[in-house]
Each structure stands twice: as C-alpha cells, then as structure tokens.
Design goal:
- The chain is mostly beta strands.
- The chain is 2% helix and 55% strand.
- The strands form 6 sheets. Strands 4-5-6-7 form a 4-stranded antiparallel sheet, with no helix packed on it. Strands 8-9-10-11 form a 4-stranded antiparallel sheet, with no helix packed on it.
- The N and C termini lie far apart (40 Å).
C-alpha cells in the first residue's frame, strides 16, 4: 500500500504516505502506548500498553476486533498466516495465541521469568522463537501445540529483537548488552558476536534489526543505525 504506519504513545496510529511526507489518516482507538504493529493483507494488528491486542481494517480505519487478556503491556506480535494464528508476548511473562480472524484466545502459557520483548516464527513456520528481559532465547514447537524445544542463555541482558536471514539459514538477536549475535538456525549454534570492542558496534542497547537481501541493519539507543555485511564461509 506504500503506507507507513506509526504508533503513538497516547494518540493511536497514524497513516503516512512516506514518499510525499503526508498524513492520510489516523485512528485514536487507545490512550495507551503502542509497542508493536504488524500487518497482513488489509488488517493491522496492534499491541498496546493496556494489555490490549487490536485488529484494524486498513482501508476503512475501523477497529474490527480487540481482546484484553492482561493488565500488563502487550509488547510484541508475530503472525502465522498458515495456521491462522497470532502470537503475542506480554509483560506478565506470558505468550498468548489468538485466532487471527476473531482474536479469540486459543492458548496461553508462562513462557519466561520476565517481560517478553520479541516473538518471531521461523521461516518454515514450525517454531516460535521468544526473547525476553530475562536474557533467555526460547524455542517452541508449533506443530505440537507450542511445547518447549530448547532454552539458551543468549545474552547478558534483555533480548530486544530476533530477525531471520533472507535465506532462512541463520538468525540474529540483539540485546541491551550492546551486542548483536549471529546464529545458525538448524543447529542453534552461536557463530559471531558483533560488539563495540571487536567491530566498532553500538555503544548502548541494540533495539531493532532488519536483515535485507544484502545487509543487516541495526538500530540502537545511541541514536545510530548501522549497516553490516554478513558473509558465511561455504561448508
């Protein structure tokens, strides 16, 4: 749609034509802070600080569905289109699985000991990855009803984001410990640590990652965005 969707701290969402630098719509449906926005087709899914998960029709800017399952922040959203499911991570340490169309609750469990900051489905859709303020990376088997697969003490401090490589063979995590870590997806093996001491990396918390076809982008509390060339040796 060529639209940028921006979430506000107390004023809902705003739709922007980013090329023209023009606002074309807005919807004030919550007074709470917005932590995550994900979209699928014409629907936009929003996680907010009042524990609400909301579904909005992008064309009409109408709130279609909402579900509040916690008094704590709804912080991160992952969409599994094949199963018609929406996974949401909360500050009450729970992961909750909702029906993608109705937002009816399907499953919930205490996944971590602290707030969940990031959720991502693996490229093949078979696993759900979660990262938390407890510095743990956990993997859940989607096909067995989200039974636990493994747990890794992946960082020293909170894991802020997980991102998969375009070829689906690797993934990266970033953390409040100022580092980015590169992992082999099949073996869940740590391959590389990118930090300030070794690679002139970020000096403060690394908050967000984007792995494009030709490079990895990272955004930090140090107010910088860095671009990395990631190359792997042929085995």
């Amino acid at each position: 749609s060529n639209l940028l969707i921006a979430g506000h701290n107390y004023d809902g969402i705003h739709l922007l034509e980013w090329e023209n630098k023009k606002e074309v719509g807005s919807l004030h449906f919550t007074k709470a802070s917005i932590f995550d926005i994900q979209s699928l087709n014409e629907n936009v899914y929003v996680a907010s600080g009042d524990g609400m998960v909301s579904c909005i029709d992008l064309k009409s800017l109408v709130l279609i569905q909402k579900n509040k399952r916690s008094e704590k922040n709804a912080r991160t959203i992952a969409i599994h289109e094949g199963k018609g499911e929406l996974a949401v991570g909360y500050s009450d340490n729970y992961v909750r699985i909702f029906d993608l169309d109705t937002l009816a609750i399907k499953q919930e469990w205490a996944a971590h000991s602290k707030s969940i900051f990031t959720l991502r489905y693996s490229p093949d859709g078979n696993f759900l990855f979660s990262g938390s303020r407890d510095a743990r990376l956990k993997v859940w088997d989607v096909q067995t009803g989200y039974l636990p697969v493994t747990e890794i003490v992946a960082h020293m401090y909170a894991i802020n984001h997980i991102e998969f490589s375009p070829d689906g063979k690797h993934f990266v995590t970033c953390s409040m410990d100022k580092s980015i870590k590169v992992w082999d997806l099949e073996e869940l093996k740590l391959l590389k640590v990118i930090d300030k001491a070794r690679h002139a990396g970020h000096g403060t918390s690394v908050n967000k990652l984007l792995w494009t076809a030709d490079r990895l982008l990272s955004a930090s509390d140090d107010r910088s965005i860095s671009a990395w060339d990631i190359e792997f040796q042929d085995s």
